[in-house]
């Protein structure tokens, strides 16, 4: 969607990874997914060169929007281009799986169904040209904590996903109830969107951001004008790409 981070990758004459970011809340060490992706890439590449990476951060951190995971996937894709594509798509997928379960999804750059731990990807044949309002309360959610609360199930999703409308009409997030118990701001954000007139509302990922989906831009604009957010809360109007 049109809310995105920007990564700058430039060749360096000597081996090594120099990583900087515009976000003071993000570390630049080995616990950063961008650095981790670059490090893994270079362990598999025979080269005397290194890279300088700068991340301009716009996607809120720890909000369940996949910002860090998409940055890691983009790092792999970008480095592969920068070094004249030494690795195949399958090679990149294997690297992505080692970094995080949801990172393979972002290698596809299109709507897809993720299965298994997230490493099995089924790309969809259509785009999602909708408009979205995203509300981000000033909270951070530990993804690891959220997934530790949920019991695995073998229940299959029965709905056939053959057009964009099916996804919108079946919005549901199994993680939501666990997050709401610990972070009431998530329920508050959903209530704010509903009061403003939004119909299709869900928590994003493992939280704590919440989004609403609209078929038309004018409907999204109408709802956004009615939003009444507490101080330090953020909202974004974005388009699906």
3D architecture notes:
The protein is α+β, with helices and mostly antiparallel strands and 241 residues long. α1 runs parallel beside α2 and α2 packs antiparallel against α3 (89-99). It folds into 2 domains: 6-113, Ribosomal Protein S5, domain 2 (2-Layer Sandwich), CATH 3.30.230.10; 131-239, GHMP kinase, C-terminal domain (Alpha-Beta Plaits), CATH 3.30.70. The protein contains 9 helices and 9 strands. The chain starts with 5 loop residues before the first strand and ends with a strand. The protein has a 4-stranded antiparallel beta sheet. β7 and β8 form a beta hairpin. The protein has helices spanning 33-43, 67-82, 89-99, 103-106, 143-149, 164-169, 176-182, 185-196, 217-226, and strands at residues 6-12, 17-21, 50-56, 112-115, 120-123, 131-136, 200-203, 210-214, 234-239. 35% of the residues lie in helices and 20% in strands. The active site is at residue 102. Belongs to the GHMP kinase family. IspE subfamily. Pathway: Isoprenoid biosynthesis; isopentenyl diphosphate biosynthesis via DXP pathway; isopentenyl diphosphate from 1-deoxy-D-xylulose 5-phosphate: step 3/6.
